[in-house]
Design a protein that fits this description.
Layout (H helix, E strand, L loop, with lengths): L9 E8 L2 E9 L4 H7 L2 E10 L2 E10 L24 E3 L2 E4 L2 E2 L2 E2 L4 E2 L11 E2 L5 E8 L5 E8 L4 E8 L5 E5 L3
Antiparallel strand pairs: 1-2, 2-3, 3-4, 5-10, 5-12, 6-9, 6-11, 7-8, 11-14, 12-13
């Protein structure tokens, strides 16, 4: 979703170096008048770097306007995890955004004693989520959430830097 989901991104560069295999894409809002109207003039650049089993996404938003621009990017990694009961999640976050119909209805609340307290590995067996967690535990400028299957020891780590201060957890019904 979002205004740039179906936009045509320009391939600026592809290649391989010591950091891995990469592709750099960009989008200039001057090519999308509706985006400029709502958000302002900007250039967005994303560089996807794959090295071994690690994917890194570098993000750059250049403000080309004379005013501050209300713009952000959100990433929605999706992992097919059949048999939800086999999986556990750990998200070191201290608050969540209460919501109804995917809209925030209050300020962030403490996770303690709620289904949002995922600071330790927690089974996804009977749980569903479509929620935003915040007040993340950053260590050395990085935050990591974990998805773990103890039966086959698969561990997926999602790491983000301090620019991304929230994380969305989506777990549908099986």
């Amino acid at each position: 979703h979002g205004m740039v989901r179906y936009a045509e991104w320009k391939v600026e560069e592809t290649g391989a170096n010591a950091d891995g295999v990469f592709i750099k894409l960009s989008l200039d809002t001057q090519d999308y008048p509706v985006i400029e109207e709502y958000f302002g003039k900007a250039k967005i650049a994303l560089t996807y770097i794959l090295k071994g089993n690690k994917l890194t996404i570098e993000t750059r938003i250049e403000n080309k306007d004379t005013k501050a621009i209300p713009m952000s990017l959100a990433f929605h990694p999706w992992f097919n995890t059949p048999t939800k009961s086999k999986w556990q999640v750990k998200i070191p976050a201290h608050k969540y955004w209460p919501s109804e119909n995917q809209l925030s209805i209050d300020k962030p609340q403490d996770v303690t004693g709620t289904k949002f307290d995922l600071r330790e590995f927690t089974s996804l067996e009977e749980r569903t989520y479509d929620d935003v967690l915040t007040k993340l535990e950053f260590k050395e400028g990085r935050f990591t959430a974990f998805l773990y299957n103890p039966q086959d020891t698969t561990l997926i780590e999602v790491t983000q830097d301090e620019v991304f201060r929230h994380i969305v957890l989506y777990v549908p019904c099986d």
